[in-house]
Amino acid sequence: MFKLYNTQTRKLQDFKPISEKVGLYACGPTLYNAPHIGNLRYFVAVDAVVKSLRLFGYKVNCVMNLTDIDDKTLKGAREQGAKLKDYTKQFGEIFFEDLKKLRIDSIDKFPRATDYFAQMRELVAILYKGGFAYVADGSVYFAIGKFNGYGDFAHLDKEGLKVSARVDNDEYSKDNPGDFVLWKADPHFDAGEEGINTGNFSGEEYEITEKGRPGWHLECSVMSRELLGQPFDIHLGGVDLIFPHHQNEIAQSEAAFGKKLANYWLHCEHLLVDGKKMSKSLGNFYTLSDLEQKGASPDEFRFLALSSHYRNKLDFTQNSLLQAKESLKRLREFAFKSAEQSKQDSDKFFATAKDNFIKALEDDFNVPKALESVFSTVTEAYKNSYFGSPAQEYLSYIDQVLSIGLKVNTKGEENIIYEGEISQEIKRMVLEREKARQNSDYGLADRLRSKVNDLGYDIKDEKNKIRISKK
Ligand code: AMP
Ligand code: ZN
């Protein structure tokens, strides 16, 4: 059984799923900018958690929401004079492109907040009827004093706590907790004009203006319940979301339905750049395209993101990126080498290696520890010439979680058939091309193929063979 650290209890706990399929909800991006590498570090962590759970044998239903309406997106759209949908669309596209480049492909559903307006209004009404909410200035607020245990999750110091009356902003600090907004009056916002379906909601017990929209926290309470039920198993987010976002999700969902929201809460630490918080004003703010322009590949960034435990801060530096590049290269070289026949029986060796890999993950998804085991496996394998299919199978196994292109899809020397006399130079180029393909460097692979063609030779890729012949 694996253990995971639960922010709610501040303890490492054994995992006990609610049912056969593990329900997992991860707070997703706010669609007001291109994801920065801090966000991406978190998305990689979510992907590794889901893939680890699947490696452990669980079925998983993973939901990540898209916040396409909140203070930030509305401000951005207004500044650009754009419709909210058009404004958020551009960032949604970049987000999905980045996920693809980073091989983050374990998430099953990406609900958008604007598709759940009716259900959100429903939840506001339930809270109002239950006596947990009140109306002021056309908005509806959650009365934190009415929810027993408000602040427990975020460990708010209740003794010296100064509670401000009400907070309208989606984000605020632990120093001024207050009644937070569930449904915010906004004279400039018209859901109908924005093409948002508000449903046939009726039965509101209170008078509020039609021109309004949900608070950010409400969105996650609703989408998680709609898609996973309540309670569900695991809730994920970055550490900055513990307060107020997750505290408020808990208050809303548990007050409304008298049930726990989620059984385990995981929080991913932040990425720093050169030891500092990333910010546009410091000029240390990067997106994935910025890194690509500097010559780093998405796989190198993914490797770097994996190399630090999700509960530790990750310091992004030029040097750490270079180290990731080198480490990835070593693994890819081994993947290439593994296409050679093994000179030794290595089944047992790789079975133990797999065991070490999964055991590390079972310890609160300790990917860095798993990677350590991978590197010692590779060193030993070189020492003993353990290559061939057991090595390839091991690489496919670990790549189910790491997803850094270790699945061997190239052919080794024994799969290359040379028809007639072929010079050493051509043979070397053909092997180089295979290596480039292993590294997903298809540009280089294509250039090498053209070069071989220009020198008067054909390369034919067949199912399990490559055939080289004179034209
Ligand atoms: P946002 O798009 O701002 O709503 O953030 C999406 C996710 O990224 C949230 O779970 C945040 O907690 C997380 N996040 C934001 N900044 C960082 C950072 N510097 N490092 C790691 N995760 C972050
Ligand atoms: Zn959320």
What does this structure look like?
Helix content is 43%, strand content 16%. By secondary structure, it is α/β, with parallel strands linked by helices. The chain has three domains: 256 residues, 3-Layer(aba) Sandwich (Rossmann fold), CATH 3.40.50.620; 92 residues, Four Helix Bundle (Hemerythrin (Met), subunit A) (Up-down Bundle); 58 residues. The strands form five sheets. Strands 5, 6, 7, 8 and 9 form a five-stranded mixed sheet that branches. The termini are far apart. The mean pLDDT is 92.
What topology emerges from the helices and strands here?
Elements lengths: L2 E4 L4 E4 L6 E6 L10 H19 L3 E6 L6 H10 L3 H18 L15 H13 L3 E4 L2 E4 L21 E4 L10 E8 L26 E3 L1 H13 L3 E7 L3 H16 L4 E7 L2 E3 L14 H6 L4 H9 L7 E3 L1 H20 L9 H16 L4 H18 L3 H15 L13 E3 L5 H15 L3 H13 L2 E5 L4 E5 L1
Parallel strand pairs: 3-4, 3-10, 7-8, 10-11, 12-13, 14-16
Antiparallel strand pairs: 1-2, 5-6, 6-8, 8-9, 15-16
Helix pairs in contact: 2-3, 4-5, 5-6, 8-9, 10-11, 10-12, 13-14
Bound molecules: adenosine monophosphate and zinc ion.
The site of adenosine monophosphate (AMP) has 16 residues, from helix 1 and strand 10.
Task: Summarize the entry for a quick read.
This protein has 471 residues and is α/β, with parallel strands linked by helices. It is built from 14 helices and 16 strands.
